[in-house]
Every structure is written in structure tokens, then in C-alpha cells.
Design goal:
Elements: E1 3-6, E2 9-11, E3 14-16, E4 21-22, E5 26-27, E6 32-34, E7 37-40, E8 45-48, H1 56-65, E9 73-75, H2 81-84, H3 87-93, E10 98-101, H4 103-113, E11 120-122, E12 128-130, E13 135-140, E14 150-154, E15 159-163, H5 181-195, H6 199-212, E16 216-219, H7 228-238, E17 247-252, H8 257-271, E18 276-280, H9 286-295, E19 298-306, E20 309-310, H10 312-324, E21 330-337, H11 345-351, E22 357-358, E23 362-365, H12 370-389
Parallel strand pairs: 8-9, 9-10, 10-11, 15-16, 17-18, 17-19, 19-21, 21-22, 21-23
Antiparallel strand pairs: 1-2, 2-7, 3-6, 4-5, 7-8, 12-13, 13-14, 14-15, 19-20
Helix pairs in contact: 5-9, 6-7, 8-12
Bound molecules: MU-OXO-diiron.
MU-OXO-diiron (FEO) binds at residues 78, 80, 82-83, 145-146, 164, 220-221.
Amino acid sequence: MYKKIKENILYAGMNDKDRLIFDELIPLDKGTSYNSYIVIGSEKTAVIDTMYPKFTKEYIKSFDENGITKVDYIIANHGEQDHSGSIPALLEKFPNAMVVTNAVCAKNLQEMLLVPAEKIKIITNNEELSLGNKTLQFMIAPGVHWPDTMFTYIKEDNIICTCDFLGAHYIFDDVFAVPSDDLEKSAKKYFAEIMMPFSFVCRKYVKQIRELNVEMVLPSHGPVHKNPDYILNLYENWAGEQGKNLVLLPYVSMYKSTEEMIDYLAKKLDEKGIPSVKYDMVDGNLGDLAIALVDGTTIVLGTSMVLAGPHPAAFNTVYLASILRPKAKIASFIGSYGWGGDLFGKMADMLAPLKLDVIEPILVKGKAKADDYAKIDKMADEIFNKHKELGLI
Ligand code: FEO
């Protein structure tokens, strides 16, 4: 059965508890939900976002099961198919309905789902659509996270549907968020993968939503926020410009030489009051790394040499960091080799767009010796001084 959010606003979403990974990239702890909302006005009925294609049949059936016999508008806040995938089937069920969206999303729906242009009503920023006693206002919000994204504000109820923004890959029995460590972790991982590259834009929309003083936030994944401050505060923190007094130590080590150096650095940092997170790039959960990237100010990556270059797992991590655009400001490398090659050059090139302050890397043949450990001491000192300069210590 649909769940009631408020009078004549229903939750028609579905939980996907079996989904173990999203975007084939970040593992999910608790599956995800695809949220769809139905707004019933005195004259017209609107559906806000639809359903992931896998559940289309069940989703379409749910309209009859819940007595929804008329849909006039299908609001597409975003063209990605976990929300738009059931639009063609919904148009088939309700042939008189019109899809309502912005021009960028309209193009996506035509190209990705073959929605006919004549079935789409294109709106502009702040345009309103009357459902009778309820009014929908559209706020075009490109960049959180596609260029086609918009929010739908239900004016009389002071509720905003934010699509992917402020969401979480998290399933729930009740529709409303109950703050917990688990929910926060899921929302943070989701932020890291989906929103962190657009932190600047996130800050802008958090401010905009705060100014509206909304009663509820209805995202398209995860629970509904009856206390919007909970998720807005978290986003404000995660999307901020300054990281924490935290060093990330992703590493891959074939014969333990690199890992021993990483462990030594972690110990030295700890002695100076700098926490660190060690992350095994081969066996680790990418979600844990993504979460750590939200907070870390310094990244020191450790890798063994494979043939004449870094281990492929190190490239993977460096590439991920380069596309997620974390708030880290300082970086370095530690590595060990057997017979030679270029261990750091290509990775440094890949990170160049992040404009990180790079501390002199440490490259060791085989095991670290006394002078190598002295270099690690110096690296720990430099990290301490830089964190101090940034006001983190
Ligand atoms: Fe949940 Fe961008 O789709």
C-alpha cells in the first residue's frame, strides 16, 4: 500500500533490498529505494518521479491497487533511468498524461526512453503548475548531479522533492527518516559517490532550500526527512571546503615493504595527534574509501611497483579520487620497487587537476632502511605543519 506523507501526498516508491552495488561502482550496505510520489490536487493528479525499470510491472500495478485511476502529469525531476525508467509504461497506462520537465531533461527522455516530444510539456525555472488546490513549482537545479536535474516544490504543503539531492541508498520500513549511524553512513557514502564532485553546487542548493524553510524533504532515494535540518546539516558539513585533521592511507603492498612504511607513517602521525585511515586498495570496500575521501585533508598513497609502474589498484584509487574531487589539499606517495621503473609520475599527472600540495614522495628499493624511516619522519612533520597552517590542529 502507498504510504501517506501528508494529506493527498503519497509515497509510491519501492525498496530494492537485493541491490548490492550502484553504478557498478560503490557497494551498498542496505540496498536502495526508488522513491515516487503522488500528489492529488482538487483538479489534477501528478506523479513525481517514477521507478527503476526492474520494478515497472509492479509499480504500474500499484496504481490500481491503491485506487489511483487518473494521472494528469508525470513530473520528471531527472532523466536517469532509476527515476524515469517507468515513464513509457506509465504513459501507456495513463495515455492522457503529459510528462512535465525542463528542456535538458526533455531531450534526455526523448533520447534515452524514446518519449515522444508531443507528450512532454517543457517548463522553465520557477514556473508553476496548478493541480487545483495544490501548486507545483519547478526549481531547475543543474549539477546535483546531472545537468538535467530539477526540484519540485509543493507550495501549499511547503514540501520539496529534491530527486537525487539529499538522498541515501538506504531501505526502510517506515517512510520517514529516523536518524541513526547507519542512515548517516549510507547518506555519506551516497554523497561521496554522487554529489561530492559537485560540492560547490550542493552548498548553493542547501542554502536555497534552507531559505524556503521547508516542512519536509522528499528525495528520490532513501527516507523522507520530516526534520530537514538533519540532512541539510550533514550536507553542509560534507560539502564544505575544509577537510578534517585526517590523513588517508590507501595502499597496496606485494611483499609488505610498502605496508610497513605506511604503518610507520600512521604511527608517527598518531604521535602528533593526526588520525589516519588505512585502506587496502585490493581487498578494501570502495565505499569505505569514498566515505573517508569526504573528510580527509591529506592523502598518502602507498604502492608497490608492478613491472615498471604502480600497481593497477593504485591507479584505480587515484582515478577515483580525481573524479570524485574530494576536499583533500595535500598528497604524497610512498612506494617500494624491486628493479626499477616510474612509480609515481603517471599518478601525479592524474591528480594534477586537483591542484594538491604534493609533499616529496618516498621511493625505496626493497625494505625501508634507517634513512628511509627518517624521510617518513620528515613527511609526518610536513603533514603536521601543513595541517596546522590550515587550522586543523
Ligand atoms: Fe538516482 Fe541520478 O539517479
